[in-house]
Amino acid sequence: MSDDQKMFVPSHPLPDARTGLLSKFDPGTRTLAAGFQIAPQFLPLPVDIVFEKDVPVQLRDGITILVDVFRPAGAQQVPVIVAWSPYGKGQGTSLSVMGVFGLVGLDNGIVSGLEKFEGPDPAYWCAQGYAICNPDIRGVVDSEGDSVLWDRQEGRDCHDLIEWLAGQEWCTGKVGMSGTSYLAASQWFTAAEQPPQLTAINPWEGVSDVYRDLLMRGGMPDTGFAQQLQDGSFFGKGQKEDIISEAERFPLMNELWENKIPDFNRITVPAYVVASYSNTLHTAGTFRAWRRMASEEKWLRVHNSQEWPDYYDEANVEDLRRFFDHYLKNDDNGWEQTPRVRYSILDLEGGDQVRVAADSFPPAEVVSTKYYLDSRSRSLTTEAPADGVTAAYDVDSNPNAVSFITRFDEETVMIGYPKAHLWVEVRGADDMDLFVLVQKLDAYGTPLQAFTVPNQSARVHDLTDYGATILRYKGSDGRLRVSARHLDETLSTDDVPAHSFDRIAKLAPGEIADVEIDLLPIGLAFHPGEQLRFVISARNLLGTLMPAIRGYTGVNSGQHVIHTGGEHASYLQLPVKTT
Predict the structure, then answer these.
(1) How many separate domains does the chain show?
(2) Model's pTM, two decimal places?
(3) 159-188 pLDDT tens trace
């Protein structure tokens, strides 16, 4: 059983930097009057709000968790939106949360400080006739038990909370969920448990497979952010799951990791999913969940920025309210006429298109097109080179990469899933950590990039020159440890290869291996004269996804050889829009 494979370490009390004005245990009910401010830098409340603090809720196994509930004053019954995460329910006014807002360039005055980190703001939602429930989940702060990280246990726990909320006298019986990152991932797990009163979900960018997205992307143990997540969250009185030790002990896919993938076939509730192309932690998982979830009523919006500015943007909040009004309040507001997909096309020179309507992602008019690598000219061509030619690099040399370029003569738009199909060989070793990147270049060959956040200060330049990929978009990347190349035939499609990660197949001397590498989905416009560059390297080309986390160095030695043309015609497959 996966529970037998779990490992735990002692938790610790909430540190000062993560303690907010509402973190202290202080049970009871009070009314916060319209105009109330939790602190001077935050938004005043627009309406009277009833605040029920540290309410005990018992889960099915007897564990008691504590929740905060914010609801409009008055006797009317309202639906409730749950924000499920291990980030303390009172942290909205903490130095750490205010620091994140400062990092991305958001004014703390756009929120009330009553919201959970990455969650819906009670100031707005209570004024619109909703309640907000902020739980401290199992093992966090003053809640009982030992905490786990992105696990089906969380889905069962949140199921129990949803059913408890639906039975409260102030509730209509309809419950929704919303939030970004951890608060998005927890929605996949909860919806898969099918709590009867869960009516609609709003996952706004989040992993959907702990092994493939967080710990072992491409089969490589890149655990810097996982370490930060484990050490910098899950503060409480008991124990917390030690996923770093679990990854070291169980490096291959097993029951423990399977239990950290939601059962997408059981996600059937209406869902408004929000994604981006640029979050190297969340993008693959959000699109995976969108593709695989069984919900017949599901919407996707792909934005062109970073999730926190996007989540709190006034127009986007109003858009979400229309979705929740339709499902949680039965409003006949025409939401169902909303295009099922609204995607962005990045220009990277200031001309992004957003909310482009489509019935699917990728849109029906997209054709997967092979661009073959030609090592002789270092170009990408739509015709496979007749002759076999190799390109190689020593992994300890500079450069330890090879690249291939194509120039577009006419306007070209790409929307969808790129993949690389490569024939590779290693000399002087038996394995390869490969990193690949699709870059847009201008007509003069200059790589184009774009900040995803309002803050574009000198400090953010420093942070993002190498790393902090969630703050600056540099292109679509992918990675694969070649010994983990075995494909999962049930999960793979022609556009999106999926690896089983349940076996290791090292390379024999002289062996030329056939590998498929998934890259993050793209929405890119190329104007006449602009170019696309495809890079293959022995090193992480983008650096870390967040500031101040440990980077990953590929485990490489010897020489990497990329075979092109002839019987080993490596190619990059790109989703080209035809009209």
Answers:
(1) 2
(2) 0.98
(3) 999 999 999 999 999 999 999 999 999 999
pLDDT, tens only, 395-429: 999 999 999 999 999 999 999 999 999 999 999 99
At a CB cut-off of 8 Å and minimum separation 6, what does 462 contact? none
Query: The domain spanning residue 204 has which CATH number?
Result: 3.40.50.1820
CB atoms within 10 A of CB 370: 15
Report the CATH number that the domain containing residue 478 is assigned in CATH: 2.60.120.260
- Give whole-number Cα distances, 403 to 37, 129, 238, 558, in Å: 55, 55, 50, 19
List CB contacts of 198: < 8 A, sequence separation 6 or more: 159, 162, 175, 176, 177, 190, 191, 269
Judge contact between 307 and 179, C-beta under 8 A: no
Residues 186 and 259 in one domain: yes
Same structural domain for residues 378 and 460?
yes
Q: Show Cβ contacts of residue 507 under 8 Å, excluding neighbours closer than 6 positions.
A: 425, 426, 429, 430, 431, 432, 482, 483, 513
Structure tokens given for 343: 């995607």
For CA atoms 377, 382, 386, 388, the dihedral sign is positive
HEC string of 355-367 equals EEEECCCCCCCEE
367 is written with which tokens? 């054709």
Among residues 56, 90, 267, which one has the least CA distance to residue 164? 56
Tell me the residue range of the domain where 209 lies.
2-338
Query: Are β-strands 171-180 and 198-204 bridged in parallel, bridged antiparallel, or unpaired?
Result: parallel
